[in-house]
Design goal:
alpha/beta; five-stranded mixed beta sheet; Nucleotidyltransferase, domain 5
């Protein structure tokens, strides 16, 4: 049974989640949680925590770490605070299960996976296609990012 990591791309409207095998770097599970405009913070957090608890219960024995993409900037300080709170909640979910959590900035993820820290979303998707055989649509950038976060975490921390 191969070890696994979870990569997360947290955003206020979409949360990308990828469960990836450590050795082969192949996906086991990739999903996007999409929230309607107007979804309350409490409802969003509750749904995300419930989903992550379920994923942990499925893969607990194999899980070695969780890697969360952190944030460089936001359009305004309120959005920045919301994203940081979401990241804190995500960490708590995994700390509660005793699973190590690491964070990477977006430019670190792009540097490790695409070879340059300023790679565009399109360039990152192309690298994922050529390197791992995975194709993501433009509308699936959160899922692509979650997978890239997991791969970068594997290469950097494990």
């Amino acid at each position: 049974m191969e070890d696994l990591v979870i990569g997360i791309d947290p955003a206020l409207r979409n949360v990308g989640i990828a469960v990836v095998k450590v050795e082969s770097k192949q996906p086991v599970f990739i999903e996007r949680m999409k929230f309607r405009k107007g979804t309350t913070e409490q409802e969003r957090y509750r749904k995300v925590a419930k989903k992550l608890d379920k994923i942990v219960s499925w893969y607990y024995v194999q899980l070695k770490a969780v890697i969360i993409e952190s944030i460089l900037f936001a359009k305004n300080s309120a959005k920045l605070a919301e994203r940081m709170q979401l990241i804190g909640m995500l960490k708590w979910v995994f700390y509660n299960h005793g699973i190590p959590v690491y964070t990477l900035m977006p430019n670190q993820v792009k540097l490790v996976v695409a070879g340059k820290g300023n790679a565009t979303k399109d360039e990152l998707r192309e690298v994922l296609k050529h390197r791992f055989g995975l194709e993501f649509k433009k509308t699936e950038s959160d899922m692509a990012d979650a997978f890239a976060v997991a791969v970068a975490g594997i290469e950097k921390f494990l």
